[in-house]
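In the design runs reported in the main text, the only information available to the sequence generator was the tokenized backbone. The following block is the verbatim input for one such run; it is reproduced so that readers can re-run the procedure and compare outputs position by position.
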């Protein structure tokens, strides 16, 4: 995970969830900026951009955040990216459908792929304790979080798991 991947198809085929982080190898501000920039330019319904990206790096907040997901590899990560959304600022269809989850997911995916391009490991995490996360970050009532991800480099010698098997094209594609 140290090589930069520049070809899009290589990037999406080689990205893997990383569940092993070197706590002593932080992600530089320059690389963090590139990752966040990918989220900033992500598309959103009606271009409302109803989000805020929080990078948790400080010992104080990392410790608080660790309470919301009890996996040792999560605790090792030098930084965690939290994509915060504002449903009250998101586009709403006439029938009441609110695009917030889609908007946040696109922004997160942009950043996860940008991280992969930089050789930075990530792992989508939805299984966190929401109450604890809200408390740790002092989120307001109009703020929502669906997914977070660690940002960091795998420990030396870590071998990326072979790709989990994906369904075959015929199983997921239909032409009509
Ligand atoms: C919406 C979403 C939520 C996920 N939540 C978790 C999680 O809470 N914990 C975890 O270890 N992995 C989580 N994952 C990672 C998936 O297990 C992983 O992406 C999937 O097995 C495919 O593996 P890959 O990312 O290495 O290609 C999540 C992925 C997505 C897209």
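Verbatim output:
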């Amino acid at each position: 995970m140290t090589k930069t991947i520049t070809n899009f198809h290589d990037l999406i085929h080689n990205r893997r969830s990383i569940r092993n982080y070197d706590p002593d190898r932080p992600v530089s501000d320059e690389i963090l900026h590139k990752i966040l920039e990918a989220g900033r330019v992500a598309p959103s319904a009606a271009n409302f951009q109803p989000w805020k990206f929080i990078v948790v790096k400080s010992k104080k907040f990392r410790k608080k955040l660790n309470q919301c997901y009890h996996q040792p590899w999560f605790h090792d990560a030098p930084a965690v990216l939290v994509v915060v959304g504002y449903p009250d600022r998101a586009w709403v269809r006439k029938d009441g459908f609110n695009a917030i989850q889609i908007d946040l997911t696109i922004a997160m995916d942009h950043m996860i792929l940008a991280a992969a391009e930089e050789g930075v490991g990530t792992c989508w995490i939805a299984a966190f304790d929401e109450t604890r996360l809200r408390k740790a970050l002092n989120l307001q009532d109009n703020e929502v979080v669906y997914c977070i991800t660690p940002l960091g480099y795998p420990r030396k010698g870590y071998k990326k798991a072979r790709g989990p098997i994906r369904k075959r094209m015929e199983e997921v594609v239909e032409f009509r």
